[in-house]
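User: Could you go from structure to sequence for me? I need the amino acid at each position, not a summary. Structure tokens:
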């Protein structure tokens, strides 16, 4: 099944969710049509299998082997997300793209939520910021959305925001006691 899921992930990542025909997906999976349908009996199941594979790969690439020091872990995590964007997701988040392609799919929305929740939780744990999962998710999601337009500048900006979140710096008048404020009034 992992070979099928990996092939489906590659096909959907490179061609989107509407474009690939079932024959294209079969070829990408490297199996017969019968085998493809045995393990993924519908296109919706094919998308879910591809995204589950994507989730596992992303979590491993971003979180495995991070430095133990929280500040170093945050910097490494942001760099890894930037590398992921450069090598795997130059058009943006595949999970969001899948939900945009089929917004009424409850299983897709549930998978998107599970993926993002797990990313936020692991980021907060790795960075020693157990109460900042949402803030870290905003930084990671911001990087994911900005990377296609800003590239490495988005990575650098995400690192500065992470520094502010950790209380390690100021960016104009937006930092106040380790919190990020909009404008100068708090």
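Assistant: Here is the amino acid at each position, in order:
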């Amino acid at each position: 099944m992992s070979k099928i899921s990996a092939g489906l992930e590659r096909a959907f990542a490179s061609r989107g969710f509407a474009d690939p025909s079932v024959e294209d997906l079969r070829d990408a999976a490297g199996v017969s049509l019968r085998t493809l349908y045995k393990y993924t009996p519908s296109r919706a199941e094919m998308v879910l299998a591809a995204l589950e594979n994507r989730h596992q790969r992303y979590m491993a690439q971003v979180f495995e082997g991070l430095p133990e020091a929280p500040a170093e872990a945050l910097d490494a995590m942001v760099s890894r997300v930037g590398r992921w964007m450069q090598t795997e997701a130059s058009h943006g988040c595949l999970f969001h793209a899948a939900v945009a392609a089929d917004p009424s799919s409850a299983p897709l929305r549930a998978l998107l939520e599970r993926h993002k929740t797990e990313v936020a939780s692991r980021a907060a744990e790795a960075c020693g910021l157990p109460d900042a999962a949402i803030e870290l998710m905003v930084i990671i999601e911001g990087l994911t959305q900005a990377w296609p337009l800003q590239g490495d500048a988005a990575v650098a900006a995400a690192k500065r925001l992470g520094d502010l979140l950790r209380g390690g710096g100021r960016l104009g008048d937006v930092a106040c006691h380790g919190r990020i404020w909009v404008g100068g009034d708090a």
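One structural detail worth keeping in mind: The beta strands are 175-176, 179-180.
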